[in-house]
């Protein structure tokens, strides 16, 4: 995973050449899948690791394309770096969920934290990543070493996991040979080459050495670079124009030996899948004076939910909204085979009108199929849209008819990683032991209300001590 920004342009070219060297000479050649992605500003995140793993040749083909792009762009990239998308990918990878259920994995990240613009949410995701026993190495080229603590959290403060080097392939290889090489070699499958690695040569670098706008630490120092390191980024007085969207290309082969997965829902009664770390509701202090809290209601509208249950849910939504601060933004979405009612945030008055319109349309919509990924992704998108706004979501649905449980599980993990408080109104019949709700609610069982047989007033009362109190105590 490599940062591509105006601050790390030369380092990224070195990084891409380094991963090719690693794959060719250190990792055994066999049944291994290689994932590669880059990250920068929000618009740049077009190379999602989780779109697929490649063969070694496919990964190197992609790396070569990116090297050519970097040399052509000559460091004309953004200086606002977001880590959130990359760390969410990393969380899913170390969790081993869905299509990423590899038995073993190792991660090498190249980056700096001088230009990070989403530190708070990135720290929260990093703490969840640190609950797993993952092999993570980071090449840190922050001006004075990472001053935010992000890299120390990701590496669990393990000695030697954060490495330092100038923008030199030979120097990076020498530093990595201390422990990174052995860890990556031991985790790979296949046969080692009997030939000695050829001596590396320095790659061609962009003529523009890059520019870091934030050379002084902006955050309280929680970690510092060891005094034994000898690296400094080349300085420059010229700032390049910040533009780019990298063209999307596909490698000639995407052959991979991915572990097999099933479509069974995650089980809450076994220990085969790691539970998400439990979090607590925390007070949120945004930096702006605008509306800082949004509440989302998401309701399943399928044949698996009776007309009485649909009505009870929508009427309880009105009761809950009436007892929340009116300055909040309110949104409602419904789902079945697809999104049936698109999420749109409104004032309280307009929201009430929308919900009453949905009540008047009952018993429709009445989809015959239940898919959850798209509605969960709607919630995730809202959570990622503005880090200065807190999001809460109440999801109504059932588990027996869900057609995309693996995708739903992955989406739940992503939502939980953002710190969004999720609550569930569960109309499951109890015929299967598996459920997505613990993953969506971040293992807060008190946020799950079983709705069968309950009236709208009873549903409202059930959420008083959780959803309503949480929002009242934490809105601004």
Q: What is the general shape?
A: elongated
Q: Kindly state the mean pLDDT as a whole number?
A: 77
This entry's quaternary arrangement is single chain
**Strand count, sense and closure of the main sheet?**
6 strands, mixed
Helix content: 25-40%
For the record, the CATH architecture of the largest domain stands as 3-Layer(aba) Sandwich
**CATH level-four homologous superfamily name of the largest domain:** von Willebrand factor, type A domain
Strand elements, count = 11
What share of the residues does DSSP label as strand, in percent? 5-15%
In sequence order, what are the helices and strands, one letter per element? EHEHHEHEHEHHEHEEHHEHEHEHH
- CATH fold description of the largest domain: Rossmann fold
Number of domains: 2
Cα separation of the termini: 37 Å
Task: Write a structural description.
This protein has 476 residues and is of the alpha/beta class. The chain contains 14 helices and eleven strands. α8 (307-322) crosses α13 (456-462). The longest helix is centred in the first third of the chain and has 18 residues, at 56-73. The chain has two domains: 2-187, von Willebrand factor, type A domain (Rossmann fold); 293-474, Rossmann fold.
């Amino acid at each position: 995973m490599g940062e591509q920004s105006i601050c790390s342009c030369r380092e990224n070219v070195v990084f891409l050449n380094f991963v090719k060297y690693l794959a060719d000479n250190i990792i055994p050649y066999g049944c291994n899948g290689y994932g590669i992605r880059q990250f920068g500003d929000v618009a740049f995140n077009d190379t999602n690791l989780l779109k697929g793993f490649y063969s070694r040749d496919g990964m190197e083909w992609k790396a070569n394309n990116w090297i050519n792009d970097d040399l052509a762009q000559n460091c004309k990239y953004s200086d606002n770096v977001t880590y959130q998308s990359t760390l969410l990918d990393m969380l899913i990878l170390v969790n081993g969920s869905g299509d990423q259920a590899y038995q073993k994995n190792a991660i090498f990240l190249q980056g700096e934290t001088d230009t990070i613009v989403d530190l708070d949410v990135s720290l929260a995701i990093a703490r969840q990543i640190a609950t797993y026993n993952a092999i993570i190495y980071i090449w840190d080229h922050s001006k004075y070493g990472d001053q935010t603590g992000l890299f120390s959290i990701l590496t669990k403060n393990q000695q030697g996991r954060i490495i330092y080097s100038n923008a030199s392939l030979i120097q990076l290889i020498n530093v990595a040979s201390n422990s990174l090489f052995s860890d990556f070699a031991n985790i790979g499958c296949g046969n080692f080459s009997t030939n000695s690695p050829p001596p590396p040569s320095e790659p061609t670098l962009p003529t523009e050495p890059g520019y870091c706008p934030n050379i002084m630490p902006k955050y309280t120092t929680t970690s510092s670079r060891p005094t034994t390191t000898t690296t400094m980024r080349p300085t420059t007085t010229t700032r390049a124009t910040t533009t780019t969207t990298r063209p999307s290309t596909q490698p000639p082969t995407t052959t991979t030996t991915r572990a097999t997965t099933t479509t069974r829902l995650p089980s809450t009664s076994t220990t085969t899948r790691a539970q998400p770390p439990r979090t607590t509701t925390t007070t949120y202090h945004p930096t702006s004076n605008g509306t800082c809290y949004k509440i989302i209601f998401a309701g399943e509208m399928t044949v698996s939910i009776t007309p009485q249950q649909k009505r009870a849910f929508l009427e309880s939504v009105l009761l809950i909204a009436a007892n929340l601060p009116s300055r909040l933004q309110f949104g409602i979405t419904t789902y079945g085979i697809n999104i049936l009612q698109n999420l749109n945030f409104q004032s309280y008055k307009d929201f009430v009108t929308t919900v009453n319109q949905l009540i008047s349309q009952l018993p429709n919509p009445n989809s015959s199929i239940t898919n959850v990924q798209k509605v969960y992704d709607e919630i995730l998108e809202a959570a990622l849209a503005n880090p200065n706004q807190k999001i809460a979501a109440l999801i109504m649905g059932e588990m027996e008819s869900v057609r995309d449980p693996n995708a739903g599980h992955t989406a739940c993990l992503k939502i939980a990683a953002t710190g969004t408080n999720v609550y569930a109104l569960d109309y499951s019949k109890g015929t299967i032991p598996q459920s997505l709700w613990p993953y969506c609610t971040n293992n807060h069982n008190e946020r799950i209300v079983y709705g069968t047989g309950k009236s709208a007033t009873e549903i409202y009362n059930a959420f008083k001590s959780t959803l309503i109190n949480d929002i009242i105590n934490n809105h601004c």
